[in-house]
Amino acid sequence: MAKKIMRYGELFCGPGGFALGAINASKKNKLYTIKHAWANDIDEWACKTYAKNICKNIDDESVVPGDIRDPKQFNIKKQDPIDILAFGFPCNDYSLVGEQKGIKGAFGPLYTFGVQALDIHTPDVFVAENVSGLSSSNDGQAFKNILRDLIEVGYRLTVNKFRFEQYGIPQRRHRIVIVGLNEKKYDYDYKVPKKKNIKITCKTAIEDPPIPEDAYNHELTNHHPHIEERLSHILPGQNVWNAELPDKLKLNVKKAKLSQIYRRLDPKEPAYTVTGSGGGGTHMYHYNKKECRALTNRERARLQTFPDTYEFAGGKEQVRKQIGMAVPVDGAEIIFTSILKTLSHKNYYSIDPSIGYFSSRNIDDIDLL
Fold first, then answer.
1. Cβ proximity of 81 and 121 under 8 Å
2. What is the largest CA-CA distance in the chain?
3. Where exactly are the structural domains of the chain?
4. Among 50, 81, 176, 348, who pairs with 16 as Cys (CB 3.0-4.6 Å)?
5. What average pLDDT does the structure give for the chain?
6. pTM of the model as a whole
7. Strands 63-65 and 4-11, how do they pair?
8. Catalytic residue among 13, 91, 202, 292
9. Higher-confidence position of 56 and 197
10. Checking DSSP bridges between strand 155-163 and strand 174-182, what pairing results, if any?
11. What are the backbone dihedrals phi and psi of residue 166, each rounded to the nearest 5 degrees, phi first?
12. Which of left, alpha, beta for 51 (phi over 0: left; psi -120 to 50: alpha)?
């Protein structure tokens, strides 16, 4: 029996972590295959990466770079029909590290374009992803508004507080994942996957197997000797604040002291969260005491579970941004494996209350969050 093709559209697509995970999941499913239909992101280099790896053609016109707020650059109404929509809407205004402006921020309202795409294309299922700070932004009201809007366009929602390291991803990355099933087609809910509780360390991810010297995006950073000297005093797992540094190497900072500043990875633990932006001291630093340097982009990509064959387009900082903003490929595969099994109405997974989830199609139930 031929597998049913599920046409896949994505907003805020980044370099393609979500898409690759979805495609990988469908390769292992007997009933469904996921096929790219279209994608959009404001980052031109991310679109080139997506097109090169997901579509196998860097100039594929179905991957559209442009500001979604301008219909002349990307018009949702003119896109082909889809069965699946994914959108990891920008998290800048929901991050716990930032000011948490939420709905009131410049990026907060961008989720509404995901709602618009659902209203126009009515796919069978959608999956949306954002930082864990989403649930507390604007005293929790931003999150309730988002869920209410998604329910009102006709979807049964399951919200999972997804800790990627609990699923065998070599990185502590905590995200809210919202999966919605079209209530006109399904009378049951998405089942969140059980936690694997398999700890994969950052050292294992980076070294097993070794990264080929000629791997894509594996350029070393040329540090100032002063930075190398500072790193030589920082032990694995330490940062610039708790390491024993000579006075000349200490930072004179009076404001908030972010824990990831010149923080070395701990080789016995998953990495801390890979990020896509930040100035000096935020580039993630190697656990090996002899390696007084930041990670290469390929090492960061390993922590995001991208295969070494995945080539990112653009300069080193542009690639760093793409990798940090991506969804871990293996994590996306786990999510989409569960989605496809749910669509098959095979309840492979029981819901574990310890995971942290909310499942409902009733707008009034949102007040229970």
1. yes
2. 70
3. 4-198+328-368
4. 50
5. 89
6. 0.91
7. unpaired
8. 91
9. 56
10. antiparallel
11. -80, -5
12. alpha
Averaged over 6-14, what is the pLDDT?
Answer: 98
Torsional sign, CA 97, 142, 9, 35: positive
Q: How crowded is residue 224: how many other Cβ atoms within 10 Å of its Cβ?
A: 9
- pLDDT for residue 196 is more than 70: yes
Between CA 235 and CA 266 the distance in angstroms is: 9
Omega cis (within 30) before 270: no
Output phi, psi for 138, to 5 deg.
55, 45
Instruction: Specify whether 91 is catalytic.
Output: yes
Q: 22: which 2 tokens?
A: 């979805």
Question: Which residue carries 């540090």 as its tokens?
Answer: 223
φ/ψ (deg, to 5) at 239: -125, -175
Angle, CA of 135, 323 and 312, to the nearest 5°: 150
The number of beta carbons lying within 10 Å of the beta carbon of residue 248 is 8
Q: Residue by residue, what is the 3-state secondary structure of the chain?
A: CCCEEEEEEEECCCCCHHHHHHHHHHHCCCCEEEEEEEEEECCHHHHHHHHHHHCCCCCCCCEEECCCCCCCCCCHHHCCCCCEEEECCCCCCCCCCCCCCHHHCCCHHHHHHHHHHHHHHCCCEEEEEEEHHHHCHHHHHHHHHHHHHHHHCCEEEEEEEEEHHHHCCCECCEEEEEEEEECCCCCCCCCCCCCCCCCCCHHHHHHCCCCCCCCCCCCCCCCCHHHHHHHHCCCCCCCCCCCCCCHHHCCCCCCCCCCCCCCECCCCCCECCCCCCCCCCCCCECCCCCCCCECCHHHHHHHCCCCCCCCCCCCHHHHHHHHHHCCCHHHHHHHHHHHHHHHCCCCCCCCCHHHCEEEECCHHHHHHC
CATH class, domain 4-198+328-368, is: alpha beta
User: For residues 348 and 368, what is the distance between their CA atoms, to the nearest angstrom?
Assistant: 27
Kindly report the backbone phi and psi dihedral angles of residue 347, in degrees, each rounded to the nearest multiple of 5, phi listed first: -80, 70
